[in-house]
Structures are given as C-alpha cells and as structure tokens.
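Late entry, written up from scratch paper. The run itself happened at the end of the previous shift, but nothing got recorded in the book at the time, so transcribing now.
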Amino acid sequence: MMSNPSNGPVSTRVSETKTDPKTSTFSRIFNRNGHEKFPEPETKPTGPPKSVWREYFESAVVTVIMALFGMTFIVQAVKVPTGSMQNTITIGDHLLVNKFIFAPGQSAAFLPQREIRRADIIVFKYPGNHYEPKRDERPDNKPIVTNYVKRVIGLPGDRIRMEGRNVIVNGKPLSEHQIDAIDHNDKAPLEIVNNPPRKPGELYDVYYDPDRSDDDFPIFKLPPLGVGNGHEIVVPPGNYFVMGDNRNNSEDSRYWGFVPRELVIGRAMFVYWSYDESAPSNGNFLLDFVANTRWARTGTLVK
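Output as recorded:
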C-alpha cells in the first residue's frame, strides 16, 4: 500500500524576504533621476588656521570701525562744562547728540531726518565772536574747535528783537515759561525763586535772575552786514539765532552773532551720565563716582 504523500504531515519552509525601506515618492521626485542624493564631501579651508589672537584682533578692528562710523554719522557724546543752559542742562551732564537727524542733503521719507526747528536744542561748533574777537583768545573757547549747546530761537529770515525779558520774533512775543532763579556760579543748579504755573503753548523753561536786567546786546547795536537797524535783526539765510536757557548767564547769539548751518553738529537727545561737580570729593574715585553721580538724571530727555 502506497502512502499518499498528501495525506501525511507536510513540512513547509517559508522563506522570508527582507526589503530595505525605500524613499517616498516625493523624495524620489525631488532627487535627481530618482537616485538617492549623497552629501558632498566637506571642503576644508585652505591656509594656516587662525590663532586666537588673530580672531581677537579682527573683532577689535571691526568694533573700532563700527564705532567710528557711528560717531561720524549717527551719534556723538559731549560733556557740558558751563551753566548757560541750566536748569534744562546742568553742569556735568554728559549728552548723546543725534547727528543723523540734521544730516544735509535730500532726505528719504522713511529716514528720521528733518530741518532744524525753533526751540530745538542743538550742539554746534562755536563760530567765533564777530564783535569782540579778543574774547576768542581763551584756550577753552576756540572758534570751530569748542562745542556749544544752545536753544534755537530764530530761523533764517526771522526778525528778532528784545523787549526786557520777552523775545519778539516776527512781531510776536515768543511763548516761553519764564522762571525766576538765582545763579550762584558754584556749578550747582540754579536756585528757583518763583516758578509760576505754565501757560498753554509754553513748551520749555527759561530762567531769569530777578535782580538783573540785561538789555545791552552787541548784535542789536552792531548788526553785521546790514541785517538789522540797531533795534531788530534779521537772521540771514543759512544761519540761526540761538540763546541759552540761563538767560542772564549765557554767551550766545546776542553777544557773538549767528550760527551757520554748516557748523551744526546735531540735536541733543538725552543725558547718559551726569556728575555733580559742585559736590565735595571723598578722595576716592569709586566713592566719588557713586556718591556724586546724579542717578536721577540718567536717561533724562533734553527738551
């Protein structure tokens, strides 16, 4: 009897086929010719490796170049050594000046540039005294070298005269908040005697000594180049008439003349540090720095 092999136990060998995962259809589409894209071999830099000192040197050079660019075209730091702008700006204030805002030439609409306006506080190169040239022989008051900080009162073409405390511009009194204050000339802020309520339109403060009256100004007596009549002057084209906020202790356009546009450096922005030069010294630099710094003035906007 023959056994039917189909009736007996059957041993089945199942062969397993292992397949590698293939890239997706999208991946194959974006790979050239459907082939897998292999990374390119790393390219090693040629030449000797940079030393640590060389990297530090290159970083320092870039930093210096950027700082010089910024100080030339954007901002400049200045120190205020005199009290002609007190109490708006005090002796010992260190200011940042915006040089870009008054940059000459045509300005694009999206750039923060504009023309000089009345009441702007500007920093400029001292143009020199047209009436008393001998006053420019002081080593700390050299024309074109010494920086001044004043407020713009007259624009090109304005007619200006003085009537007591009032500044008359184009026939109308300039709207200023007048405060009575005493200047003790000790590098300290002015002593306020009377501060009346501010009226509408008075955008900035000016300070007058109640016991002084100055009405004898060279620019009104000796108008240069025939731009005045002895009582009223006319600001020439391309020039500005400036005054200090400490009206009884400020050498400004009333005494030495106009400020040409090309001598304007920029607009005073804010106080980044203020040191009280009237305070006593402790004999220690660090102690003096901490004790005599006017911390409350740090970041104060100049206006």
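The chain has one domain: 57-297.
(Scratch paper discarded after transcription.)
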